[in-house]
Amino acid sequence: KYAHENGCPWDKRTCLFAAYYGHLDCLKYAHKNGCPWDERTCWSATKRGHLECLKYARERGCPWNEFTCQSAAKNGHLECLRYAREHGCPWDATTCACAASKGHLDCLKY
Predict the structure, then answer these.
(1) Which of 22, 42, 57, 93 could in theory staple to 50 by disulfide, Cβ–Cβ 3.0 to 4.6 A?
(2) Is 1.10.10.10 the CATH classification of the domain at 11-109?
(3) 9 by DSSP, 3-state: which?
(4) What is the residue range of the signal peptide feature (predicted)?
(5) CA distance 27 to 50
(6) In sequence order, which ranges of 1-110 are alpha helices (DSSP H)?
(7) Residues 27-52: what's their mean pLDDT?
(8) Using one digit for the tens of pLDDT, what is the confidence trace for 7-25?
(9) Does the predicted TM-score (pTM) go above 0.85?
């Protein structure tokens, strides 16, 4: 908030990093104040297992793609993977390969 109010520029990476580090309050502030986001915001949230950031972004129209599921599977975040699939996020065979390559059997079985 301080940085933004004092003229610090932001872009899509602002939301990406807020989601990646699980800073839901920063993600909310940025979004409410017009900061852009893209599918990398969702991907970043699943990479570190930040389900609340993922939910916030998706419930407000942030786009996602198969990389969201791949990231969740590769990093063993079953709850993120489950949420994404139950809400229509696409996945492909690479999602299974990502889970298998890192030994995340629960994600692979899902």
Answers:
(1) 22
(2) no
(3) coil
(4) none
(5) 12
(6) 2-5, 12-20, 24-32, 39-47, 51-59, 66-74, 78-86, 93-101, 105-109
(7) 97
(8) 666 888 999 999 999 999 9
(9) yes
